[in-house]
# Entry
Amino acid sequence: MKRYAMMQLEEWNSGAKRIPLVIRGARQVGKTWLMQEFGSSHFKKTVYINFDNNQRMKTLFEGDYDISRIIMGLEIESGQNIRPGRYATGIRRNSGGTTGNVLAQIF
# Structure
């Protein structure tokens, strides 16, 4: 299963138009590990932000989706400079009892 999931992420990464990828599944099955492992092995730098109990990050995505504002908010939260095209950003969120992860290469 681990190799299959990693192959799916590699296929996503090699696509011409990568859109944010949502990784969903039951609790404690390795979604976060998969995101972090893929990010560290395929990108120069990976930023991981956990949205659980983080009101600042929840608020960041309310309203408009101005990418410059969102990247600035992610940079402030992570303490890292995010350079488009080079870095993967992993976001973990929990809503209504379901857990999901988003992996996005920022362009």
